[in-house]
Amino acid sequence: MKKYIAVKMKFWIGHAAAAAWTIFSIMLSLPWVSDLGRIVSLPVAVIIIAGIGYLPGYINAFMVVSLLLDRQPPFKISDPDDPITLIIACRNEEKNIADTLRYIKGQDYRGEINTIVVDNDSTDRTAEKAMEAAAQLELPVQVLHEPKPGKNNALNNALNHVATDYLATLDADTLLHKSAIKNLVARMKSAPEQVCAVAGAVLAKNSRENFVARIQEWDYFLGIASIKRLQGLYQGTLVAQGAFSLYKTRVIKEAGGWPDAIGEDIVLTWNFLKNNCMVYFEPLAVAFTEVPASMKHLFRQRSRWARGMIEALSLVKPWKQPMGYVRYMTGINLIMPYLDFIYTFCWIPGLIFALFGKYWIVGPYTLFVLPLCLVQNYVLYSYQKGVFRSLNLRIRKNKLGFIFYVLFYQMLMSPMSMLGYFQEFLKLDRVWK
């Protein structure tokens, strides 16, 4: 039997290991700082290298050590039967809604699932397709119409029709593993009373469509899942994502429903945390969503996510969060614009300079980042492999996508995030999809 380590101890062990790694990195990089300082001045050199190496290294080292210490507690109630309401807010999803309902029908959950489909001013036959599929599947589905555009409006319309203690949200292009709802409710029923929401594990469904989708498979499988697992370990998953999450109905109603925000799920979650509610993550509650298959749509999605983060930071200040772990986790988001700026306007140009033999920013010293990156991904892969094994799922072979994800993916993500920051700064019009 492995020795139990308290969450507080894991937190400080993680920070101690991260500090040791950062001190080692600083000592190793002194010649690099000196060389770059002669070109751009010493203070600017420190700012650049801190954004490229020190801070990302600290965060990643903290994550690796924390996850190595993490032990997901077993369910106290593994086969719950509480009735729940499942809300699907959709706009122009006539191609997907039938499959989504079919996978709901295939759930092994013992409790009653009340499904509400909200057609948010669609211009296609989304509502008709939902009713046709419900009739064929003999699945009780209530179809509502919300003429006012905005996902928050659709969700709040459905909230008025919820009579169960628990509700879950699901995107119309997202398919549920057969035990997804059972595992999500089991985590909620096994959690302390302060837990008001549980985020499910959302993975890529269409990763075979093209290379853009293939590289995102690893982002969802390793990157996003690991961040949520880390946040869940410290009792503050920062986004109970609308794509698939479970909530206590009472708490959402007390919060006034979903806010009018481009990141309505982010702001709602942070409001929960602000009110001393905990948010967990359940890796066994797996759903598969359709990821963007074009660079245009990927740019739109990730810039929208980045914009939603800035919006949440402006509405719910990290230093006002009552729980210490949550203050730290939300506080990390304060430095993300700085890291993305450095990566976009320093790292990428530095890589181009390096191709011509100018190693001012990117050079031999940056290779020391790779071992930590590989260790991090190995730890995450090993954990996710265990999750898939327990669910009788198989990891797809995608070696080329993995190599691109490790070496180049951030070169796409940071510029996309910068676009979102500028959109929010300029208060440009919001777009749901």
UniProtKB/TrEMBL annotation:
GO molecular function, one term: glycosyltransferase activity
SUPFAM superfamilies in the record: Nucleotide-diphospho-sugar transferases (SSF53448)
Annotated transmembrane regions: 12-33, 39-69, 335-356, 362-381, 402-422
Keywords for this protein: Glycosyltransferase, Membrane, Transferase, Transmembrane, Transmembrane helix
EC identifiers of the protein: 2.4.-.-
Any Pfam family: Glyco_tranf_2_3
Similarity section: Belongs to the glycosyltransferase 2 family.
Designated name of the protein: Glycosyltransferase
Gene source species: Lutispora saccharofermentans
